[in-house]
Amino acid sequence: MSYVDGYVIPMKKENISAYKKMAIQGKKYWLKHGALDYYECVGEDLKVKKGMGRGFGKLAKLKRGETAIFSFIVFKSRKHRDEVNKAVMHEMMKRMTSKDKEKMGAIMDMKRFAYGGFQTIVEK
Questions:
Q1: Alpha-carbon distance 109 to 112, whole Å?
Q2: Name one Pfam family in it (predicted).
């Protein structure tokens, strides 16, 4: 069974195109270092249907003018994830300027960013 890192990122809708540029660069890093797959998804239909539980909007405490980014990266295992992420972080820290880091902070609120590692229990 594979392993997945998942992210939920509240984001101002006006920042989506800037985030997409960063995500495209991130995809290159993760796939280059061995991730099996990489997805970045923007919330489009976040209204909860009656009887369907709690929606992402509530979960992410979205404010007016915001949506949620739902992202996930697929790995062979947790060990593989740890190896890939270490290589990606090393390369990103080498390449990112202080201006890049400042830009990232302006695009997303890291205090509301959610992340976790998940062991798959059902796959195709």
A1: 6
A2: DUF1428
What would the two tokens of residue 66 be? 């915001």
Per the domain annotation, does 46 fall within a domain? yes
Number of domain units in the chain: 1
Domain boundaries, position 102: 3-119
Give phi and psi for 122, each to the nearest 5.
Answer: -140, 135
Under DSSP, is residue 58 helix (H, G, I), strand (E, B) or coil? Answer: helix
pLDDT at 30 over 90: yes
Tokens of residue 21, six digits: 């540029």
| Confidence check: pLDDT of 87 > 90 | yes
Prediction pTM value: 0.90
HSE of 114 in the Cβ direction (CA atoms, 13 Å)?
10
Q: For residues 88 and 32, give the distance between their C-alpha atoms in angstroms, rounded to a whole number.
A: 9
| 124 domain-assigned | no
What value does the mean pLDDT take over residues 16-40? 96
CATH of the domain at 15: 3.30.70.100
Determine the residue type at 43: G
Instruction: Please answer whether residues 32 and 73 qualify as being in contact, where contact means their C-beta atoms are separated by less than 8 angstroms.
Output: no
